[in-house]
């Protein structure tokens, strides 16, 4: 599995030029490589999960075996304190049998724990390489897109009549300048009309004030 993943990474780094020479779409090919790498990671993740489950199961059995050994030791001590040496001997014999099982479980658990750690390390390395290839793919994709865009622009420019386009822009510029002049003229006319209306409004307000002032003077005279 890990060798296959390394082979995919090698293809990404060493066969890009070959893809371009064969007129293959590098973006699509790189996407496919990442898909394959993602599948490899999923398979390793499943293997890690299975191994961790096995490790936990062995750990549980080991603890149970150790607890039973300790229980037998306490029972043998209790039998000896009660004066039943024969019972204490038989309990210790059974304890030794379970101790052998516990020792065997301990060895199996340690092997499972080491294997789980190795798989975790490989999975982490694969994920790091996947992210590295993903970033490289994004960079290559951007370069490919830029190259295609430049080619398209160059081909378009080669087919354009530059003189005709420039003359067209000059005509449009003259029209825009004409629109701007018309807009400025209309704003000046609107400003002039507004000033006249404001003066008339002020005159009307001033006349009302004068009338009220004369009325107040008449009240005072009375």
TrEMBL record:
Region of interest: Disordered: 179-222
Domain of life: Bacteria
Pfam families for this protein: PspA_IM30
Compositional bias of kind Basic and acidic residues: 179-197, 208-222
PANTHER family, per database record: MEMBRANE-ASSOCIATED PROTEIN VIPP1, CHLOROPLASTIC, PHAGE SHOCK PROTEIN A
Family: Belongs to the PspA/Vipp/IM30 family.
Protein name stated in the entry: Phage shock protein A
């Amino acid at each position: 599995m890990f060798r296959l993943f390394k082979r995919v990474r090698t293809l990404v780094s060493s066969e890009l030029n070959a893809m371009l020479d064969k007129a293959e779409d590098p973006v699509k090919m790189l996407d496919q490589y990442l898909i394959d790498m993602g599948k490899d990671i999923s398979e390793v993740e499943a293997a890690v999960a299975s191994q961790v489950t096995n490790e936990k199961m062995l750990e549980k059995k080991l603890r149970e075996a150790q607890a039973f050994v300790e229980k037998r030791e306490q029972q043998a001590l209790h039998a000896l304190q009660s004066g039943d040496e024969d019972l204490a001997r038989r309990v210790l014999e059974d304890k030794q049998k379970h101790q052998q099982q516990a020792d065997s479980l301990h060895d199996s658990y340690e092997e499972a724990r080491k294997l789980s750690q190795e798989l975790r390390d490989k999975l982490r390395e694969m994920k790091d390489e996947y992210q590295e290839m993903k970033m490289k793919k994004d960079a290559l994709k951007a370069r490919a897109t830029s190259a295609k865009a430049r080619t398209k622009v160059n081909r378009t420019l080669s087919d354009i009549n530059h003189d005709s386009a420039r003359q067209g822009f000059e005509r449009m510029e003259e029209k825009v300048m004409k629109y701007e002049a018309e807009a400025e003229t209309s704003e000046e006319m609107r400003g002039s009309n507004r000033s006249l209306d404001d003066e008339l409004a002020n005159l009307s307000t001033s006349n009302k004030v004068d009338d009220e002032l004369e009325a107040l003077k008449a009240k005072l005279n009375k």
